[in-house]
Specification:
Elements: E1 11-15, H1 19-25, H2 30-50, E2 55-62, H3 70-93, E3 96-101, H4 109-125, E4 131-139, H5 141-157, H6 169-173, E5 186-189, E6 208-211, H7 221-232
Parallel strand pairs: 1-2, 1-5, 2-4, 3-4, 5-6
Length: about 240
């Protein structure tokens, strides 16, 4: 049970895996599996607010997801737009800020506009957010690292970086998509897979990891809080004693 003495992570990141397998087990289409997964997001957002988590990052569309069938990708973009438009009033009324990480320039124009409009509106209206929800969209760490290295090289070429000896961990972090977001304390992956799959690999250096067999659409508030309970019982030493 989570109590006032429990150690609550400031930032939780989730690899929301298992929508397709959930759909198959319920004799439904993959698109309906993704819809069920999308509907579960708000449950976990509410749970974060209830136990005072400050950041929630959700792996919503990876750079590898472009390999999916065209119809499935269209369904994912449609769901993404629906989520933003359907939930924006509720998010704002609960003082929840929405951001994204990743390169969304390859997304359909109307999807990009919806994402950007939602982010702008929550930023304008949520002055002291109780939670920041970060959607990882067309995100992959290798892509993030590639873009960071290119940006550093451009800045060296343009004399914006004069002393490469000053390049340290904090310097590199300022070139990542997550430059304004603290590293995740706790990373959860649903559906039984035990890997990070190109997700926040730099940022996850000292994150606690949690893997569960539960498929994402079935991952309830109670399941989430049980995972947080386990986190609160772990001893994070960061390489020390």
């Amino acid at each position: 049970m989570i109590t006032h003495d429990s150690k609550i992570p400031s930032h939780v990141a989730i690899i929301m895996d298992g929508n397709g397998r959930w759909a198959k087990s319920h004799n439904k289409s993959r698109s309906l599996g993704h819809r069920a997964g999308s509907e579960n997001v708000i449950n976990i957002v509410e749970a974060c607010c209830e136990i005072n988590i400050k950041y929630l990052t959700l792996y919503a569309f990876s750079t590898e997801n472009w390999k999916r069938p065209e119809e499935e990708k269209k369904a994912l973009f449609k769901l993404l737009k629906e989520f933003y438009k359907k939930e924006i009033k509720r998010l704002i009324s609960n003082n929840i800020l929405v951001k994204h990480i990743g390169d969304i320039t390859a997304f359909p124009k109307d999807t990009i506009e919806t994402i950007e409009e939602t982010e702008k509106e929550t930023l304008e209206k949520c002055k002291n957010p109780i939670l920041t929800v970060v959607l990882a969209l067309n995100y992959g760490f290798r892509d993030e690292l590639k873009n960071a290295i290119k940006s550093i090289c451009y800045d060296i070429k343009n004399n914006k970086i004069n002393d490469i000896e000053n390049i340290d961990e904090n310097f590199i972090k300022n070139y990542l998509y997550t430059k304004d977001i603290p590293d995740p304390d706790f990373i959860i992956r649903t559906s039984g897979e035990s890997r990070l799959s190109n997700f926040l690999m730099y940022q996850a250096s000292y994150s606690e990891l949690y893997f569960t067999d539960i498929l994402w659409p079935d991952f309830s508030k109670e399941n989430f809080k049980k995972a947080i309970e386990e986190y609160s019982n772990r001893n994070r030493r960061y390489g020390g004693l």
